[in-house]
What we know:
Chain A is mainly α. Chain A is built from 21 helices and no strands.
Amino acid sequence: MIRAALVLALVAGISFAARSFLPADATITGSGAALAFGFLLIAAMQTGHIFHDLRLPHLTGFILCGALFGPEVLRLITPSMLGDLTLVKKVAVGLIALNAGCELNFARLRPKIRSIGLVSIFGLLTEFVLLFGLFSFVLGRIEFTADMTSAQRLAVALICATVLCALSPAVVMGILKETRAVGPLSEMCLSIVVLADLAVVVAFSFTESVARAVFPPEAAASGAGGHSIFGALAVHIFGSIATGIAVGLVSALYIRRVNQRVGLFVFAVLFVVAEIGGALHLDPLLVGLSAGLFLENISPVSGHEVIHETEVAAMPTFAVFFAVVGAEVHLHAFFTVAPYAAMAALTRAAGIYAGARFGARVAKVDPEVAGRIPFGMFPQAGVAIGLANLVATSFKPWGPAASTLILGTIVINEMVGPVLFRMALARAGEIGKKREASLLDLPSHAPTPEADVEAT
Amino acid sequence: MHPDRLRIVIGLASALALAVLLAQPKVKALEQRFGVTVLISAGVPFLVMGAVFSLDSVGILTPQVLLDLKPAFEFGLGWVGFVVGLHFDVRKLDALPASLGPVIVLESVVPMLTTAGLCAMALLGMGVPWERNAFARDALVLAACAAPSAPISMELWERRVGRKAARMIDEVTSLDEVTGLALLGVVAILFRPENDTTRWSLPPSAWLLVTLGLGGVLGILTYVLLRGARNAAEELALLLGAVALSAGVAGYLALSVPVVCAIAGALLANLPIRDLEGLKKTLLDVERPIYLIFLLVVGATWRPLEWQGWLLATAFVLARVAGKRLGAIWSKRVGPKELPSAGMLALALAPQSPSSIVLMVSAATLYHGYGPERVRWAIDAVIIGGVLTEVVVRILEWRRRRIGVDLTPIPPTRVPAPEAPRPQIDEAPVVTTTPEGNA
């Protein structure tokens, strides 16, 4: 822990010294995205070590590290650096989703499909109903809705509740990776968050169209305004799934025919997908997920082979992704809406807990597992933030204020969710149960202490 | 799908497919067999692809795509810098014959001098102004690119000049990159990009200290990070972070990225790492795709129809090849007696190393805002120069083979048997420990 803290201080010192060369908005050879990437990767991993020693998830350390050094607190990372790291983030989302898809084997999950479906449906519905009720009540007291009609306030409540229903496959996958957890709880949680998040993305498209219908056209400034919602939906969801299947197909062919540097190949494919995805409005999460599901369930290649090959890239990817997510945390926004955000977070947690427990009881899930499933549904990150940003840009003038309220709630779920999920996994005794041959078992190049002694 | 987007998809996918194809071990084996560099085997298709993709009518490597690639670019420069630095193992240098040192210096400095002189004249002739010594900066950058020689094919050259001589030439080619980097570092210090917004105002001597100090600190940081790694995956993640941080800090301070990273790499190479060769292999595994990405992006700035580029390339090739020949003549006089004839030595060292493209890209990143057309010409000169040199070398080899000079393969009986107890050049006395912990 002391070593990690010293390294963190050294890296931060070097980076702050370098940043003092130029004012925040000036550049000579670029925004310093490489500096930001290197700093975030090393600093996040050291913070992860410190958190590990404190028996907290690495992932929370990554997020806190990003938040601390990000544009809102210490300002080592500037907004333009974060902008340049968008591509890295997209590739990371693709890789995380690919890994999640590769973990889900439908044949193995078939006996549990009913349980997964029931827990997801009841969990999401209860969460949505409670959040909608809360926002319908609260929004009348918030300034930005003062001039709105009742119908418009309900539309805003609908949007806010839908976005906050989003779960986080990335966080769940990240925690499962770092803890090397495996077992019924891990499997159920991963399946639920993947399926439920898909449902939330689809639901958002519908609630967005309702909001557009309620607000006059000039108020709904949009990129998609005027287009058929179903057309946009088709491109976004079905286009992403089709692209994901194509990626899975290409990857399977490569592994079967060439089978060299598979990790590098997959990474390069995800890079291309991230690059073109921006232009084609594809969702990297859906693309990666579909590719992973295709590889694990349809292609002759095992998804675990892909997971093993991309394991080298997984650790830096998780660290940088969550550090960037942390750097994007709107802390100032959180403080302005803290009481409402805390209420929303509590309501969401209560909704998930009650709904998921009820769903699990109906599906007759083992009570030991049933009691812990809700903890896997608490974390929020990438998708929720993405949808909140979409609200901010799509619905002016009220979108930015609503987005602030949503992001404030996400901050709480982002920080507390991973800790609770890790605790649930520990209680379930699933941590450290994964015992595949892994790079994590190979020694590094560093000399062993015994070798040091002998060398001297 | 919109046609523009379809083009980007097809373009990037085909670049990816080509990169995968050209990174195959079979391609490397063919390069070894025919003694050509990556510049010829894989580089030309990528250059041409980059040039075609950047055309307005094609619109694949759009300014936005190039902008997205920029952080990767800086990172790639740092990665290659680390690789060069890791070759600079003092223990390995101590094991070399003492008289090989002057050979390395002569073989790299003489071509730099000839290239700087001739290219400066060419630049002045093309109308580059005297003011602020812009012509001198460009000429010195080209001179730095002239120093590194491509790694030789051991298989081919062992047959031609014997094992010992081939190993010596191999050492020369792996160390002359350092001279080029050193010159680039000096250029980056003496010719700082002009910017009024910077908060630091330092004389060149202070920038020299900053460069050396930063490289040293980053090297130590990398070592500390690698020592603390708990497994191979974490080690790789930390290595990635260290390279990115080094490249990022150097780039942010407008220093030469590969120079700072090479200093860090050199320091790392001389500290006790359990498996330095394994670490080198990890870095070298990704070096080739990095070169290919560089070539694709460099190709996007390549304007083959600009006459200035061709003129500068001709001056560059002539000066460089003449310099290598001159250096070989002097080297033969002062170097170890096992060295091959001056003609053969010049022939072995004439092909241009792909790292010259790295040097050029690094300089172009620093000075992209100062006379973009001159930066373009210099890029043209190094790219065309690399290809032209290979052509010249093939012609010279063909001529030598026709007249039967030197290129007759040495019969196997004349190959000296390896002397087991004495350390070979490529088996430096490693002070570090073995996995079992033996010194």
